[in-house]
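Weekly modeling sync, notes
Attendees: S.R. (lead), two postdocs, one rotation student

Agenda item 3: backlog of single-chain predictions. S.R. asked that every request posted to the team notebook include the full sequence so nobody has to chase files. The rotation student volunteered to paste the first one in as an example of the format we agreed on. Action items at the bottom.

Example entry:
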Amino acid sequence: MDFLSGLNPWIYALVIFLLRVCDMSMDTIRVLFVVRGKKLFVFMLGFLQAVIFVVAISSVLTKMGNVLNVLAYALGFATGNVVGMLIENRLAIGHTLVTIISSTRGANIAERLRASGYAVTEISGRGKDGTVFELHASVTRRDVDLVETIVLETDPHAFVTAEDIRPVRRGFFRA
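Predicted structure, as returned to the notebook:
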């Protein structure tokens, strides 16, 4: 990149680092959108990511003699992955299936979750020590912590798991 050529070597390396952080952050988010089926976002992020990648890698390759540039590129890659994960957690896009297993308080948990606006499916089951209540609630990722709080306030011994889901059709999802 000719316009970067006259920069101080430390600033040049910093620019490479920042480009790579942006590139890898977008990569992490792009993969999330691929899984969620968001074609337009995947296209736009993929295009921007490719442009940034070409600028960053060409900046490193044109000044291979400067080890600082290579280190900045590698550090930007590693940092970008972490930054992308932080952004992805902050966005909390998508839905999660929360499964709750309670030995004694399943009906109370379901009642509290429904009072809070969540749809809950109740299933009777048999565990190691007898009858258990298995509850399923499909919630937005943003609401997982709130649902967990409600569950554990009602039954501190409840077993709670969460897995990402992709709603296909119908059903009730809290907006």
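Discussion: group reviewed the output briefly. Helices lie at 2-5, 9-36, 39-62, 67-91, 106-115, 144-154.
Action items: rotation student to repeat for the remaining queue; S.R. to check formatting next week.
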